[in-house]
Amino acid sequence: MSKKEAEQEVEGMDPLEANPKLGEESEPLNPKNDEVGGLSTAKMSKSLEEQLEEATAEIEKHKDSWLRATAELENVRKRSQADVAGAHKYALERFSTELLVVKDSLEAALVADNVTFEAIKDGVDLTLKQLSKVFETFGIQEIDPMGETLDPYKHQAMSALDSDESANTILSVFQKGYLLNDRLIRPALVSVAKSKE
User: Fold this and answer.
1) Mean pLDDT, residues 17-28
2) Distance CA 86, CA 80 (A)
3) How buried is 183 (Cβ within 10 angstroms: 0-12 exposed, 13-18 middle, 19+ buried)?
4) Can you tell me whether residue 113 is helix, strand or coil?
5) 20 to 30 A Cα–Cα from 106, which one of 29, 53, 82, 145?
6) Burial (CB count within 10 angstroms: exposed 0-12, middle 13-18, buried 19+), residue 74
7) In this structure, are strands 188-193 and 155-161 parallel, antiparallel, or unpaired?
8) Rounded to 5 degrees, what angle do the CA atoms 148, 152, 158 make?
9) Number of other CB atoms surrounding residue 169 within 10 Å
């Protein structure tokens, strides 16, 4: 028989004739007694229930850990905010305390009776030294640029004068400038030499 003839014969056949086992009736599955994949369905459902309980317990454990971590993070954030607010509020406390010594010296000079000009001058000199010490302690540096070349980042030219000096040389200082930890807080007010034309 040729291949084509065999195909035609199979096409015309009843499926039950081709595979007689298809027509046999199978017994219904009893969920209590039957086995699937080597496990009884009772054992399988019990195993699934246990797995579900374990998974639920694990979820609760992770949820509890997450809630605690979130609460701790919130507490840390609040503490940090309070620390920053306190730092801003009391940042000048030490500086203020040091300045009180200078104020006390000035007040003592005003209260003193029968003082000579020399005594006042010496008192002012000592008070200025106290103030300079406070400035040094807190990183405040004086800018006294006499004779230097104009630096627009530290100096402000108020006038330009004819001079034998080179252009932009500082001839006089009207008001000293100050830096706080290398940051300009006030430029020095100066007069400079004009450029020669």
Assistant:
1) 52
2) 10
3) exposed
4) coil
5) 145
6) exposed
7) parallel
8) 80
9) 17
Amino acid code (one letter) for 121: K
**Lookup result for tokens 């040389």:** 169
Nearest-5° Cα angle at 83, 78 to 86: 125
Alpha helices in the chain (DSSP H): 3-12, 15-18, 41-90, 93-111, 117-137
Amino acid at 82: A
Which tokens hold the place of 71? 């609460």
- Tokens 């306190």 sit at which residue? 86
With a threshold of 0.70, does the pTM exceed it? no
Q: Which residues pair with 141 in a beta bridge?
A: 179
Percent of the chain at pLDDT above 70? 76
